[in-house]
Design a protein that fits this description.
198 residues, mainly alpha, Lysozyme, 2 domains, 10 helices, globular
């Protein structure tokens, strides 16, 4: 009540703030309490769409793309990378052509690639990006690196949409330009060209 005995109306702003704080707290609590396998599974369950994409772009096709981008890879290594791309693209409901394009932009298909900032492997994974998603461990193997990259990319796309999700793969949450998206789209067009010409 004010000095005249009438009730003061509260501004709706504090309720809005309270709702936002509650939503953020719930999201953080849910994220931090999820077990690694559960959080990865919840983020990107396999779908019929992912299976169709994987069927349309098979392992030999991805291996051919890899040989065009990185001629130094042995056939067995190309096949191993292609298997992982198909497997984890399907698991996280991503287009294998997009995953391949991101990999080509990030590392040119080099499993041993390392950046000055600490990104590693085919997908140039930053381990700090995985901790909030409930994934931890060694990301230097072909399979673990591609799975980690797919998990990050799928989570970004789920939260932000495809274009911003791809940009956030490079920039993190503070996107500062669109050049990375253009590079990925150009690589994706090249991947498609190689697949059609084979």
């Amino acid at each position: 009540m004010d000095s005249h005995g009438s009730k003061k109306r509260r501004s709706p702003l504090p309720r809005t703030h309270l709702a936002c704080v509650a939503a953020i707290a719930w999201a953080l609590l849910t994220l931090s309490s999820a077990r690694p396998a559960d959080s990865a599974r919840e983020l990107a369950p396999p779908t019929a769409v992912a299976s169709q994409r994987a069927a349309a772009t098979d392992e030999p096709a991805i291996a051919r793309v890899l040989s065009q981008f990185n001629g130094t890879l042995a056939a067995a290594e190309r096949d191993r990378i292609a298997r992982a791309v198909i497997r984890y693209s399907a698991k996280y409901d991503l287009d294998p052509e997009l995953v391949t394009a991101v990999m080509m932009v990030e590392s040119r298909g080099s499993p041993s690639a390392r950046s000055a900032k600490g990104a590693m492997g085919l997908m140039q994974v930053m381990p700090a990006m995985l901790e909030p998603l409930g994934m931890a461990g060694n990301f230097t193997t072909v399979e673990s690196n591609i799975e980690a990259g797919c998990l990050i990319l799928a989570d970004n796309i789920r939260r932000m949409g495809e274009a911003d999700g791809i940009l956030a793969y490079f920039w993190g949450p503070n996107i500062r330009g669109g050049a990375y998206l253009e590079r990925v789209r150009a690589a994706q067009a090249e991947v498609r060209r190689i697949l059609r010409s084979s």
